[in-house]
Design brief:
alpha+beta, FAD/NAD(P)-binding domain, 35% helix, binds flavin-adenine dinucleotide
Length: 507
Amino acid sequence: MALSRAVGRLIGVRRHVVDPGGGGTPRVPRPTRAMVVGGGIAGMSAAVVLAERGVAVTVLEAAPALGGRLGAWPEELPDGTRRNEHGFHAFFRQYYNWRSILRRVDPALGFLKPVPGYPVLSADWPAEEFGRLPSAPPANLLALLLRSPSLRLADLRVMDRDAALPLLAYDPVSTWAEFDERTADELLASLRLPDRARAMLFEVFSHSFFNHEAEMSAAEMIAQFHFYLLGNPEGLAFDAPDEDYAMAIWAPLTRHLRRHGGQVHTGVTVTRLDRAADGWRVNTADGASHDAGHVVLAVDPPALARLVAASPDLVEAAPRLVARMPAFGRPGPPYAVARYWLDGDVRPDRAVFSGVSRQPTLDSVTLYHRLAVEPRRWAERTGGAVVELHAYACEPDVPAAELAERMRVELTALWPEAAGLQVRALRARVEARAPAFPPGSHPDRPGVRTEVKGLYLAGDGIRTEFPSALMERSAATGILAANHILRAEGAAAEPLLSVRPRGLLAR
Ligand SMILES: Cc1cc2nc3c(=O)[nH]c(=O)nc-3n(C[C@H](O)[C@H](O)[C@H](O)COP(=O)(O)OP(=O)(O)OC[C@H]3O[C@@H](n4cnc5c(N)ncnc54)[C@H](O)[C@@H]3O)c2cc1C
């Protein structure tokens, strides 16, 4: 690991500073007020940075609890109240900006525990292990190619190596110019990989971005390969909290924010944005309104499109933003999460987290009773297991219970012992709130800054000029939004970090 990192550093694969921060007073020099709409990762990241610099910041969150797609809430089960969550999340080690926010409440990040291994399961082929690769490129790529049972030397000869070069040459301008109009599916087909290598090495990866390959921009896929594998010095291994997200993240972050004078209101839906004398008026469903010089809209894409459409003042003030919303607000396909409380356990050698390839619905399996404190206690007491099944891009218009059952049946094809386990409780959800990355969407993807003063966007669908994705993109855009406000007011900005900004072979 250390050697691969040292070699990686020599060729520039290390953490890069994309914004050194600083440049002003430690706190805003004059009274400054900001409203943040949405209390997920993006909104809370923005609010934390703003509050620390003395901005009077208020977060308005529509749901009863903070966290958005990383939320957690109490749930009544037949044998008592348990926490349920929005689903297992992998906290990758190159999530520098999200981790910097989390360090505010746990400087050593002790609540994040390494998740051992990262197998990909298939009904047709032996499992592929991703978790134990060297951390940095090029060693991780070479090890993957040499070790992978899904790819033989003979396959590499047949493969179109020229078609594979763009994966190593991510460039924030030319990759989008050359590949945004093509689909990820076309790119993968052009590699001429054997079916097994495509299924085991590439498809699992692309599903994790909540988009179908046939509907996802090839440039986005190249960017994500770069962010997670080819430009990342930290490896594909990841960590996860051993407590639920409410306990581990949202309660302590709320306390931190309040200690710095920030406010958080949950159960408050923002309905409209109006121009006000000195900035913006944020109107809420309960009839209240809040004026502020700065507003950060940190909501999911469909919610952003709804909010913009319901705000007539934006038509005049921000016509470009308004024009982009109908396309931007169309989410990716639905995703499903089913948490099963079972009356027995699966085999002891099953991994805590496994990706799944080529099942019609099931994309991942998490053994929560081997990961988190409360499910572990429940399993010890009852002899059962807490198993969470995810589908990242599923068929539309199928009810959650049906998707949960399909995933359970598909699991038994991979782990036959699961067939004998009885269901004690099930909580299943299906939603469509993840950003879509269709071919050709990049030029119109909104960035953090809008064309109008005092209005910023943050979230995992918002464009960054450096590689980022999912939770890390939410945190990074939240911090970027806060930085724009701080700089406008003369206060010091927050540093921002990234993996290597360009690919190893980028011109
Ligand atoms: C099942 C699942 C598994 C995932 N796994 C991973 C993973 O392993 N690794 C990873 O990096 N990412 C993962 N993700 C993605 C990750 O959850 C998201 O990228 C991230 O949480 C998005 O955060 P956000 O703040 O941008 O948006 P959100 O979390 O969607 O937050 C937006 C918030 O705005 C609120 N809101 C909307 N409209 C309004 C309104 N009008 N007024 C007030 N509030 C409003 C919403 O209630 C919500 O709380 C996963 C997502 C899911 C669903």
